Amino acid sequence: MVSFKDLGLVNTREMFAKAIDGGYAIPAFNFNNMEQLQAIIKASAETKSPVILQVSKGARNYANQTLLRYMAEGAVEYAKELGWENPQIVLHLDHGDSFELCKSCVDFGFSSVMIDASSLPFEENIALTKKVVEYAHQFDVTVEAELGVLAGVEDEVQSEVSHYTKPEEVIEFSTRTGCDSLAISIGTSHGAYKFRPEQCTRDPKTGRLVPPPLAFDVLDAIMEKLPGFPIVLHGSSSVPQEYVDMINKYGGKLPDAVGIPEEQLRKAAKSAVCKINIDSDSRLAFTAAVRKVFAEKPAEFDPRKYCGPARDEMERLYKHKIIEVLGSDGKA
Ligand code: G3H
Ligand code: 13P
Ligand code: ZN
Questions:
Q1: Is the pLDDT of residue 159 over 90?
Q2: Could you say which of 11, 111, 167, 217 has the lowest number of CB atoms within 10 Å?
Q3: How many whole angstroms separate alpha carbon 36 and alpha carbon 285?
């Protein structure tokens, strides 16, 4: 058993309370490799922003969970070396899908876990979430749960079924589970194709897709039921069109990729939404930068010469999110 406290990590409790009071949101960035982690830590340290490092099941399979955990431990030291005296860094399991997985992360030094039982019936979601909460809280590890189902590209076949979180369920869910934060569904979704073209309008000037607004009425109703309770938004990449254009220009193929407009995330960050998950945007930044080097310098074969620019691009992106979208700069 390793306590996250011995690794210099923090849980989300105080971080979220301050974010709600202060009207900003904490960035939750996924990481899978060293360059991504370096960029996240550098951006957070230089802006003095609290940050959540997220490890998904896919990341564990790709990079090995032991290695990722030690990288996170190293990240705390790296942050100090960069002059961040008291780094506020959470190591979080993203989309944990079983009690055993959440337990193994708690035991291994994670300071926060998500149990995503949102695809289960309400009572089963409650039972599994409660079990994880009871275990994690013994070690002061905080737990994120999810209610409602995020739309995804796989919904393409299902037409307009609403999976939004039902505000009438949130009090019972949070009370019976004891979860520390709640991920909700108000129209965001994972990946770089958050809306189908037929769900959007087109800007006549640019020809760009303009997505429909998020369901802020659902968020308002949830906040009314649970005043001051920490709310989480998954699937919050904005899919910056400059990266999509760069990728397409340099041989990629991402037609009609579209994300959540930043002004909507800015609005959410000022509310009880205190954790905003961003993964796809950093994938786009990385890919755009790598494709550019490959196209412009075909003789290059030193990975540092394309991973380096990719890392710089991700760092710029993370700083932009922290300063211009979430408002978490200067809060740690
Ligand atoms: O929730 C989705 C995250 O973007 C992680 O994705 O499972 O491909 O690592 P992944
Ligand atoms: P994006 O795909 O919008 O970046 O969402 C990431 C996420 O929610 C990770 O849990
Ligand atoms: Zn997610």
A1: no
A2: 217
A3: 11
176 in any annotated domain: yes
CB 117 within 8 A of CB 129: yes
- In 3-state terms, what secondary structure has residue 185? coil
What's the 3-state SS for 5-28?
Answer: HHHCCCCCHHHHHHHHHHCCCEEE
| Report field, pTM of the whole predicted structure over 0.85 | yes
Where do the DSSP E strands lie in 180-255? 181-184, 201-202, 209-210, 231-233
Which domain, by its residues, includes 261? 4-326
Query: How many distinct structural domains can be found in the chain?
Result: 1
The answer to the question of residue 331 being in a domain is: no
- Per annotation, catalytic residue among 6, 21, 94, 281: 94
Q: Which two tokens stand for residue 47?
A: 């802006």
Ligand 2 residue neighbourhood (C-beta within 6 Å) = 30, 94-95, 190-191, 234-237, 277-281
SS3 (DSSP) at 256: coil
Residue 148 corresponds to which amino acid?
G
CATH number of the domain within which 143 lies: 3.20.20.70
Residue nearest to atom 9 of ligand 1 (CA): 58
Terminal-residue alpha carbon distance, the chain: 28
Q: Is residue 312 part of a domain?
A: yes
pLDDT surpasses 50 at 155: no
Share of the chain above pLDDT 70, in %: 97
Query: What does the alpha-carbon distance between residue 16 and residue 257 come to, in Å, rounded to a whole number?
Result: 31
pLDDT at 34 over 70: yes
Question: Quick check: 229 pLDDT over 90?
Answer: yes
Q: Is pLDDT of 332 > 80?
A: yes
